[in-house]
TrEMBL record:
UniProt entry tagged with the keyword Transcription: no
GO molecular function: heme binding; metal ion binding; peroxidase activity
Annotated Dyp-type peroxidase N-terminal domain residues: 127-245
Organism field: Dietzia timorensis
Name this polypeptide is given: Dye-decolorizing peroxidase
Origin organism lineage: Bacteria, Bacillati, Actinomycetota, Actinomycetes, Mycobacteriales
Signal peptide feature range: none
A Pfam family hit: Dyp_perox_N
GO CC annotation terms, alphabetical: cytosol
Length: 449
């Protein structure tokens, strides 16, 4: 959990806020812990004092310590009712890779375009897709167990899976390419244009998605190389985006991720096993039940101008205290957000244009699973581009994600410092059970039955 301010800090902040809040808020909106007290040290000293008289206890304690390579040895099962990598506790490193089927019309300029294809074309694309999915299924199942893929010349690189997951997705155009447009979920289409967007063709769309994540960057890089090489000739790479989160073991497991602005990002989350994340009986496409929808937005953050903003103004933009993640109407990160609360001057405590106010779910269906990944990239000189790969998982993009995104695009104070430069939507099919795999099944085979 996030460390709360010391009592003296809280009192000072409160008194200062009471004196200057009204003036500061009007000016701003018009224009746009205590350290732990030696517990670990005390325990260590106690252990030293008893070492000579309690050798057995010390030996047992040493045996209870985790393996030095526990992070590398950890595995997440590949087979299951749902694909791993969606509701899985997020790993420290990831790469999102989009591909187009080889030979398909180039749609980089109009990534929602539907090509006109003949029967032979669709059969060829369907056969290519089957080949890709079989390779990714077979090699993926090996890699997550710490085994090398078929024809892998560097098997040593696969020895430490480090909670490796591989998640496959389908873009809107894919269904036209294989001659099965009737199987496309109703919500699967590119997002509408928003005024805040400055989309770059290099980060939009895609026929196929491969999301690879693990707690070791070498594991991610090796899996990405192997799985792309295994389908060479069947697909062409469209874009690659790498992201990272806090390192495994660096913070408590239940601590919310911070983005590069210093904000706790992803406080409010739905039940990760529920029907807000995974498609249920109300999904019109039966083959997608147990699957999920993914919206991936690449958001560039203007670090230089954000660093010019003082903490009180940052908090007003967020609607939360950056230090603790607590809403401005509460004391702790997970306290409820009260958008109706007023201060002594009659102003909303949480500004209506703040990020929290715009992103707050107004109906139970507007919740979705947020998975933010930080990124930095250097194109060869100058300051690196920094930002967020914002992955939103939901059962129905139209019903859950789109209303929230429309409000954010309409009026969100954070838009002053952020620019979406990439956007893509994918359908993630359900998982593959072991019995299905033994019978010759593969990820996404529901498209062909």
């Amino acid at each position: 959990m996030t460390t709360e301010p010391r009592p003296d800090e809280t009192q000072h902040t409160s008194e200062h806020s009471t004196r200057s809040r009204s003036h500061t808020r009007r000016a701003f909106l018009g224009g746009t812990s205590a350290a732990a007290v030696g517990v670990a040290g005390g325990a260590a000293l106690t252990g030293c004092a008893r070492a000579d008289t309690d050798a057995d206890a010390a030996a047992k304690a040493a045996e209870a310590l985790p393996s030095p390579t526990a992070i590398g040895e950890a595995q997440i099962p590949f087979h299951g009712e749902r694909q791993a990598g969606i509701a899985t506790p997020p790993q420290a490193h990831c790469v999102f890779r989009a591909f187009d089927l080889a030979g398909a019309p180039d749609n980089r300029r109009d990534y929602a375009a539907t090509p006109r294809l003949g029967g032979d074309d669709t059969k060829r694309f369907a056969a290519a897709l089957k080949g890709v999915l079989r390779v990714w299924t077979d090699d993926g199942a090996r890699l997550v167990r710490g085994e090398s893929g078929l024809a892998d010349m560097d098997p040593e690189l696969a020895e430490n899976p480090a909670r490796l997951t591989l998640t496959v997705g389908f873009g809107p155009r894919l269904f036209d390419l294989i001659g099965r447009p009737e199987l496309r979920p109703r919500w699967l289409r590119q997002l509408p244009a928003f005024e805040i967007d400055d989309l770059d063709d290099r980060f939009n769309g895609g026929d196929l998605l491969l999301h690879i994540a693990a707690d070791d960057p070498l594991t991610v890089a090796n899996a990405s190389r192997l799985l792309s090489a295994g389908v060479r000739g069947l697909v062409v790479s469209r874009w690659t985006q790498q992201g990272f989160r806090k390192a495994s073991g660096a913070h408590p497991k239940d601590m919310t991720q911070r983005n590069l602005f210093g904000q706790l990002d992803g406080t409010v989350q739905p039940d990760t096993g529920g029907d807000l994340v995974f498609c249920g009986a109300d999904e019109d496409q039966e083959w997608m039940r147990g699957g999920s929808g993914l919206v991936l937005r690449r958001i560039v953050m203007n670090m230089a101008t954000w660093e010019e903003v003082d903490p009180p103004q940052r908090d007003l933009s967020l609607g939360r205290r950056q230090s603790t993640g607590a809403p401005l109407t509460g004391e702790h990160e997970f306290d409820p957000v009260d958008l109706d609360a007023k201060d002594k001057a009659g102003l909303e405590v949480i500004p209506p244009q703040s990020h929290v106010a715009r992103a707050h779910a107004r109906t139970p269906e507007e919740l979705f699973l947020r998975r933010p990944f930080n990124f930095t990239s250097d194109a060869g000189g100058g300051d690196p581009e920094s930002g967020l790969l914002f992955a939103a998982y939901c059962a129905n993009v139209d019903r859950q994600f789109l209303p929230v995104q429309e409000r954010l695009a309409e009026a969100d104070l954070l838009n002053t410092w952020t620019t979406p430069t990439g956007s893509a939507v994918f359908a993630l099919p359900p998982g593959l059970g072991e019995s299905q795999a033994e019978a010759g099944g593969f990820l996404g085979d529901g498209l062909f039955t």
